[in-house]
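EI: anyone free to look at a 177-residue chain?
SC: sure, send it
EI:
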Amino acid sequence: MSRVGIHPVEIAKGVNVKLEGQKLTVSGSKGNLFLNVPENVTVSVEDSKVTFKPANDSIQARSAWGMTRNITNNMVKGVSEGFTINLEINGVGYRAAVAGKTLKLNLGFSHDVNYPIPDGIKIECPKQTEVVISGCDKQVVGQVAAEIRSYRKPEPYKGKGIKYSYERVRRKEGKKK
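SC: here you go
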């Protein structure tokens, strides 16, 4: 039995939740998000809570029950507060800058890496070695951060590359004579 799906999702102030058939729409100050609810999950919106129940007793229904509850909770949090991921760039000459709708990255290649910023995502560079990614959809924010990090992952010998702010790079000892 799902321990997550049991708990209802509290709807924050300023957030509207609509259920039309199996389509759940959440709108707030940061944006609008929608979810196609799986057929084996029953959703009901009452007062300031959204509750979920499995349609039957199958394993798929019970696993989709908790997943749907968590995705809806992230949607409500995203349209009210938003999500943010910070990246740090380490390395001599490595830097980042935002120019219009592209993120320009100098990562030691013979050319600059230009990353087009997707709609609904806001990227800022408070310093040349910091990138702040924010948006209302948790999955898209995480995907953008992972794609930017994949251009130059942190290496274990000198620690050069792009890493998450909370990430700790395990350093290795170099060659010995």
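EI: Residues 83-164 form a domain with the Outer Surface Protein A; domain 3 fold (CATH 3.90.930.12).
SC: 👍
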